[in-house]
Predict the structure.
Amino acid sequence: MRVIRVETSTATVLLTEAAEPKVRDRQTGEIAKDAISGEALMTLGVVYIEEGESSLIKVTVPESGVSEGLALGAPVSLVGLVARPWESVFNGQQRHGIAFRAAAVAPADFPSPVGASA
């Protein structure tokens, strides 16, 4: 599966949904685990803003990678963010999308206003 590294240094990323356990099976409530480490996975929502455009995305993060002190609406840093295109067939319908995963999420500072001097 192709993995695309996402450069976040020029983006503003704001937390829109608090981290919660990623559910693998909605019928049983089974929590998704990392295939290699076996660690529980969490999902969170962010708005990713770059070059005047924004996107709402869901990001999967290992439970140990979710820092304390995250606040809704506040800027966050997504360490090691990658995008993985996927596609599948479900009930005869082809589906596709992009899954986002980060090694960690941590509080960040608001960027300086455009044109402001340091």
User: Anything to note?
Assistant: The mean pLDDT is 91. The radius of gyration is 16 Å. The chain has one domain: 4-107.
